[in-house]
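Structure first, sequence second, as always.
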């Protein structure tokens, strides 16, 4: 058994990682400053994890929280392209300075390995598909630059200080506890909450834009494999975490309508500026080095997510989540 530190543990991916580690009987410590994370994501974990309210920017606190840790799963970030465009300095601070603080603390604490939540936004809007890790990064937004910079810092720390690091480039992770305003797969949470309330759904553009939507359990699994993999296969490297398949918004809308029993047609509006048309990952590198393969497919992931929202939707509406 090992001790895992999850930064951003109150967030969507961080809280799902914590639940799985607790289920496996591991020791879990986590911190969050609730910038976008939610206290209710930690409710189920009360008494099962050690939690500290802490910002990545508190270098002393971060040093303290890293003591005695075996693996760091670094999920904390301000994960928003629009926020990074409006206020690049604030997102730079959490996403780059915060990452650097955590890496220094992990190095000084003798942590075995740091696994980092990188982003497919590093690929930018180049039309070539599928995206593979050998492609030249082409980040567009300040957020994409920041996430890519984090990867480079991890690789640097593995080369310069001999600390083991792995970066996982997530592609559109979705599932229970995702905020419907999430820039990634928030559209799925949005469709689901609108359909369950029998409200109209909006599709921006013609709906033929497609994504490599990845159910959360696959991302959780990739993180745990990244901790366990042989260092010579993964240290200092970057891996796509996705499914290697893509679905359009029109297909997704139909699948969700069938699962939920929703009978309205979508309302189409002008495409949003800057939306990438298609996204698809090559996951062969993660398969070879980590033994990663998706275990929950898209449709099954949608079913599980709908089930969760059915339970949660009333509470979420009462709390004023945007629809
Ligand atoms: N969801 C996706 O599809 C996706 C895709 C690519 C990359 N990512 C990356 O995965 C990670 C997790 O994303 P998520 O979807 O769970 O988002 P999220 O917003 O639910 O989680 C991020 C967490 O980090 C916390 N946080 C932010 N700044 C902090 C700071 N300075 N100190 C401490 N905590 C801080 C937030 O409060 C939140 O709980 C992020 O690093 C994001 O960039 C996510």
């Amino acid at each position: 058994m090992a001790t895992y530190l999850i930064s951003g543990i109150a967030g969507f991916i961080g809280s799902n990682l914590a639940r799985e580690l607790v289920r496996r009987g591991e020791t879990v410590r986590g911190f969050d400053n609730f910038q976008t994370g939610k206290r209710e994501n930690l409710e189920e974990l009360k008494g099962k994890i050690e939690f500290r309210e802490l910002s990545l920017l508190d270098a002393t606190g971060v040093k303290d929280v890293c003591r005695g840790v075996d693996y760091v799963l670094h999920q904390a970030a301000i994960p928003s392209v629009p926020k990074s465009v409006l206020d690049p300095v604030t997102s730079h601070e959490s996403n780059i300075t915060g990452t650097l603080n955590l890496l220094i603390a992990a190095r000084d604490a003798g942590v075995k390995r740091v696994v980092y939540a990188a982003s497919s936004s590093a690929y930018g809007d180049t039309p070539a598909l599928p995206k593979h890790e050998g492609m030249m990064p082409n980040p567009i937004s300040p957020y994409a630059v920041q996430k890519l910079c984090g990867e480079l810092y991890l690789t640097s720390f593995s080369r310069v200080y001999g600390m083991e690091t792995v970066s996982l480039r997530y592609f559109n992770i979705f599932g229970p506890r995702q905020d419907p305003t999430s820039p990634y797969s928030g559209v799925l949470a949005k469709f689901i909450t609108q359909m369950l309330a029998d409200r109209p759904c909006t599709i921006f553009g013609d709906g033929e834009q497609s994504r490599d939507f990845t159910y959360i359990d696959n991302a959780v699994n990739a993180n745990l494999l990244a901790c366990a993999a042989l260092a010579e296969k993964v240290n200092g490297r970057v891996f796509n975490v996705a499914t290697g398949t893509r679905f359009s918004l029109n297909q997704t809308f139909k699948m969700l309508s069938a699962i939920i029993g929703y009978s309205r047609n979508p309302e189409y509006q002008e495409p949003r500026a800057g939306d990438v048309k298609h996204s698809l990952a090559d996951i062969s590198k993660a398969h070879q080095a980590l033994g990663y393969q998706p275990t929950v497919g898209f449709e099954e992931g949608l079913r599980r997510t709908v089930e969760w929202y059915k339970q949660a939707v009333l509470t979420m509406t009462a709390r004023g989540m945007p629809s």
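Margin note: The pocket of nicotinamide-adenine-dinucleotide is lined by residues 8, 10-14, 32-37, 55-57, 75-79, 94, 98, 117, 119, 147, 170, 172-173, 182, 184-185 (CB under 6 Å).
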